[in-house]
Amino acid sequence: MRLTLRAALITLAAIAATFGLDPFRNYQLATAAGVFAAVAGLTVLVGLTGQLSLGHAVLMAAGGYGYAAAATAVEETAPWPLVLLTGLGGAAAASGVLGLLLGLAAARLRGPYLAGLTLALVIALPSAANVLPLGGEQGRPAPFFPVPEALSALIAVEQWHAWLAIAVSAAAVTPLVALRSGRAGLRMRAVLGDETAARLSGVDPALVKTGAFLASAIPAGLGGAVLAIATQQVAPGGYGLAFSLLLVVAAVIGGLGSIGGAAIGSVLVVALPWLVDTAAEAVPADLGQRLTGNLAVLLFGAVVIAVTLARPGGIASLLTGRTRTGKPIKDRIPSEDAALSTNTER
């Protein structure tokens, strides 16, 4: 009950914040909410089980296509709430099936092999979109949800879409918080710490890894549905390698294993490119053209290096004042520093 109440309060606060934003900022907020759902799943996957996925953008794409297909199928005959719920069900199903298949592979692969598999899926996505009935490079359209008549005099359509995005992301992320703090999260940490010891304790590492991938895939798919709600389009070009790597960057910057850190990282990866483009418009045209698209990548790299060196636990550890062991900084002892250093070298 406390978790549900806290999630409801944070959701209402985020919805209230949309009244202080202009339409473009509300669009950015909706985009950040979709990214947040995917990054939250990724940070739990990497932070609690150590499985590195470089292809979470493919899971978002699967969710986006599943949403578009399911919602479009009932768009003409059902009211908009049912269209939305049907689309979200399609997104969860499509991303869940793909996540389950990846989870079964993850139970047998580790390290660079798993990362290489997920990376290959991202690279193959444009070709798959041309072979499968996904609309090719143009993608597929998604239903447009206008502002309900009762709210049409109060809010704009971008704010309405931000409300929908916040609500869907909250529904996707709240179960992850419960999973992370419950027995499932404890089993994931046990597998991450020592698979042999976990197996001797009655924990099946293969089952835990598969379940973790599935649990991270469904929020990613719902995040893809959120982006489809905001843009009314699903195309393979929006889920390329650069975007997939940005999801990893957001998880690392925010702090692996931290849901709050995932929110911070998501806002950063959405806002920083826009800030760079805005700054590029203020410089001479030739210089601005060279900076656009390149400076953002350089800044992301610099931020990742700086955060990794200064705060291995990410920005979340700075805000909570805790180390990777979970103890306050002032209570840490030298032997723990040595242990952390040894684990990092491993």
Report on the structure:
This protein is mainly alpha-helical and 346 residues long. The chain has 15 helices and two strands. The protein has a domain at 2-239. It has helices at 2-17, 23-49, 56-74, 80-106, 112-131, 157-181, 183-193, 195-200, 205-231, 241-254, 259-280, 285-291, 295-310, 314-320, 334-345, and strands spanning 140-141, 233-234. A two-stranded antiparallel ribbon has the order 1-2. The longest helix is centred in the first third of the chain and has 27 residues, at 23-49. Residues 323-346 have low confidence and may be disordered.
Q: Categorize the overall geometry.
A: globular
Strand order, main sheet: write it out: 1-2
Q: Summarize the amount of helix as a percent range.
A: over 70%
The count of helical stretches stands at 15
Low-confidence stretches: 323-346
| Separation, N- and C-terminal Cα atoms | 40 Å
Chain-averaged pLDDT: 83
